[in-house]
Fold this sequence. Notes:
With 392 residues, chain A is mainly α.
Amino acid sequence: MINNEISHESFSARIWRKTLGGVGVKLGLAWVIFLVFAAVFAPFLANSMPLLMSKNGVISAPVFNYLSQEDVWVLAVFFLALFVFRLKIGLGKRVLVYVLGGFLCAILVSLWIKPPVLIIYDDFRSARFTDVDWRIMPPIPYAPSDYLRDLGSKGLEAPLATDGALHLMGTEENGADVLSRMIHACRISLSIGFISSGIALVIGVIVGGLMGYFSGIVDMLGMRLVEIFEDIPTLFLLLTFVAFFGRSLYMMMVIIGVTGWSGYARYVRTEFLKLRKQDFVQAAVASGLPLTSILFRHMLPNGVAPLLVAASFGVAGAILSEATLSFLGLGVVDAPSWGQMLDQAVKSSTFNWWMALFPGGAIFMTVFSYNLIGEAFRDAIDPKLSRNAGVN
Amino acid sequence: MITYLLRRILLMIPTLLGITVLVFTVMALSPGGISPQALIGGMDMKPEERKALQDYFNKRYGLDKPAPVQYLRWLNNVSPIGFHTDEQGGYTEFSFTKGMDLGSSFQYGRPVFDILKERIPITLLLNLVTIPVTYFIAIAVGMKSAANRGSTFDICMGISMLALWSIPTMLAGVLLLGFFANVQYLQWFPTAGISSREALDMPFLPHWNDSGFVRGFLLDRIWHLILPVLCLSYGSFAALAKLTRTSILENLNSDYARTARAKGLSEHDVLWRHVFRNSLLPLITVSAGLLPSLLAGSLIVENIFSINGMGQLAVEAVRGRDRELVLSITWVSGFLTLIGYLIADFCYMLADPRVSYD
């Protein structure tokens, strides 16, 4: 007898289950979570000042006095995200609460947090901070811009070199700790990856959606625009944008987003061209719904699956773009980033493998993780394109 | 056929125009924009000399005019048909035979055309060597893992290809250069350029003479190209190998392959004579997108290996805010990409008789 079991699993639940089934995707997610952790808690993981110390019976935490506005904001937003995740409200409201909360945090932080303008790292190795009852140092006791002048560091120490202070991944030319710089650089890579692919996604969905929904002349003009963006090698377009506009982190995010939307637009267009003549869309049009409602509430959820796959590959692409730009010397100037560290390794007079291998390896691991996640997603959504296609 | 070709070529014109408009807008909207002041920058010179240079730039490139006028002026110079210009920058008569003038570079003070003529062949050489290497390895690996599907080889290849695809080109380049072309480690390959100084005087082929083995121009060139080509190719062959595998597996399970087996053909014949050709189609489709990614890749590779190709020129041009050079590089690379798409479509037709463009 055949046991007819009816699956009550929803489409999205099935996709999640199938995506998270593999080993590769778990490793990828673990690495990304690890990076998020490192990015959020960077000042507590790698810094020159003690986390907690007791002097003459008075317990103090010097690290809190030196947190920058950015550090505090990132921490606040991280805990806000955890809080919003626990709330039992709809997705749209969650996003709204999160964005508003983020803005509120930014305003409060800029009003209240006034970190010292000048930090002299040598102080933390003077008697004021060392002559104490007990103290807890961060796991990596060097700040990213602490050049260890007072320790007589000449820079370019190999990893685990025994003379002088211990550096797990060596030091760069100026004497700063490579691992510490890498931990602080996580922020740039992660934020660029998420925000710029978010920007690209929004532009792509709007342009592609309009093209697919209206078709005809709008579609033709839109496709020309997509082609223009596709026919210039993306890296070259990025280079032009970055060279002629500023070098700030936010500008980079916008630029990478603005140059990377054409792929998403293509996906959405194809989906919407398929959907626009279907009954439920015709019904929505007939009931006189406004355009935004038809496009985003009725059509988009039905065409979102391939978009998510493209987005997870897009995050990898954006991280790679930032690294490449920094590598070519056109990246963010004032903060270390993985690509810029790789560039340092090339510019250095001698070849020091630790300066190239560790930051480059971090870029590789991150891109690989996102590609693994994207691939698992694609296998779950579209079995025809799967890695295991045709095997059984 | 001819009408199709003509239509495709005519469709290229709006795209190329769009590309230049886009890049020109980016340059014009940027803070500071393109002005003679920005170009002269911190150069140390007397006020009257500075004034003279500014006037020269203004007259030569019309930099004091509004941006749309500047663009039209550039377009008129570049397009093969348009108005003649006289010494004063005025327009005289309309002509169909005036020829293209790409202007001259701000930075180098040389005609852009001459610079591009030197640089483009180098980049094309790099890419044209890379593409066959890529396809050869990709097809070999893809066929082998498809033929032994589910085997250890297949699984290892699946993972390592995704890993290879994720390795950033710059990391691979820096490590290869550091370990294989450096005095500190193995000094097997040259560090920079695509040929040695002395190789230019050598005969083409390798041979023996009194002083011993002479490697000749060809061998020297290959020796210089090994590392850059390795760097350029691994990413694309990883992607292509996965594609080959999927496509061959799909075809191996199709009805016509089963029929061929049922007729008693050997598995070898089924694979090579029946399935192989059909599996090529997606590979050809993808090849169109390969060229832009290779051009972008050569931008990084050329910078790492100090090869004087178009990629390095592009970085120099945008750094120096060299308007004429940036615009020309943009439309030339866009043009090469479009030609790549066109060639891919024709190859598609050759490989699949069902496709026709009439």
